[in-house]
Amino acid sequence: MAPNLPTENIHSHNLKQLLASKIDEHNKKVSTFRKLHGGTVVQNLTVDMIYGGMRSLKALLTETSEIDPEKGIQFRGYAFEECLKLLPKATNGEQPLPEGVFFLLLTGEIPNEAQVEEISREWARRSEVPEHVEKTLKTFPKTLHPMAQMSAAIASLAGDSKFAKAFANKVPKSSYWEYVYEDAMDLLAKLPKIAAMIYRNLYKDGVVHGEIDSSKDWSSNYASFLGNNSPQFIELIRLYNTIYCDHEGGNVIAHTCQLVASSLSNPYLAYSAAMGALAGPLAGGAHAEVLFFLNKLTSEHGYDIDEENLRFLLWEHLISSQVIPGYGHAVLRTTDPRDTAFRSFGLKHLPNNPYMKLCSALYNTVPDILIEQGKVKNPYTNVEAHSGVLLQHFGIQEVDFYPVMIGVARAIGCMSQMIWDRGMGLPIERPKSISTESLMKLVNEKKTVVFD
Ligand code: HAX
After folding, report:
1. Which residue from 1, 152, 353, 446 has the least number of CB within 10 angstroms?
2. Which CATH superfamily is domain 286-393 in?
């Protein structure tokens, strides 16, 4: 259920002021909660969780979003479909402006158009990328992976960190979040141009065409920098950034960012580290996996594969112990509503794209086969089922670049949470590790695992 309705009651359009009162109010609530329930046990830890990548372990605090296995991602309690409906759109646009989801993740409230516009203006104002970053990117060899370039470019902004300076000047802990907020706004403002510089250097003419246009929204400028001004591509970028903005705190990107920032490392260094996590094929490689799969099918069997043949090929693929990319999820137990949004976009704007047609055939065939196979907990599409196809259609063909695009979008969520982490005064993360030998001893002695 949505906690709050659109914000007629907000007198000030100043996001930072609003945030100050929200953080204060929340901290009082948390303080009372901890006094009453600080010792309450919420989950038992099993040996399998320890060996299994901490899967399902409820041990991280994330305020901005939460995945409901049956409904999908909830941004501050709002289901994704509600966000698509309620968040402000550009004039003549149908997709939400990601500036609005940033406001929502930060405040828990659906912004009005003026509040979203204020963020667009603010990000345009802060968007200039320092010359040294541009020069550094130009010196990288073309063989250096775009994610390594992204991580390096973000780290090289750290010299301008307002949080690092404030910390060195010994500002009170209660005001840390204000400086993290400033860094977060600066980073978000600069990311589209940094991503576009990487893209244009590696794959195009090395020039980011056009200056920032402060009358346009963040995604319009981003699309122009990438080299495609078409209204449909701009709409896709708005949707894409809203879709990938946040996915609770346990994914490797958000978790890395939160961990690194917990040492009070500045937001640039924390997000640069998170880009290292996103660069891993298990994190940022899934868009591409779907395209490789579609490419394999079409190069061997053409575009018009009839249903019977498709079923045969899918079984053949599964029998050779391979997964069908774009299907299944670690937490979700239904079609990812974010994929539903991508699919609707594709059906509307590129109904005749041959990959889109093949995706539709798969959409109608794969779940039944996965159910019949009987292993998969969720046989339905995940967010990656159509994402790469849409990007390819609009000319972003270079699959190595896709994680960079996720990195731009995910900064919205990671930065929102980081502001809250410092606002709540969360401590440095320091879980206890244990060796197999000690774990065996503990289990034998106590029969339950209790770290002390
Ligand atoms: N095709 C075939 N088999 C699949 C499958 C798929 N799409 N999804 C899961 N399975 C298999 C698993 O490999 C596992 O088999 P084993 O028992 O033999 O190991 C079994 O079904 C149970 O797996 P699960 O519990 O349903 O799923 P997991 O939590 O282990 O894995 C994955 C979740 C997303 C990694 C998995 O569904 C998968 O590999 N999907 C295909 C790759 C893909 O689309 N990745 C993108 C993920 C996007 C995302 O997470 N976004 O948030």
Report:
1. 1
2. Cytochrome P450-Terp, domain 2 (1.10.230.10)
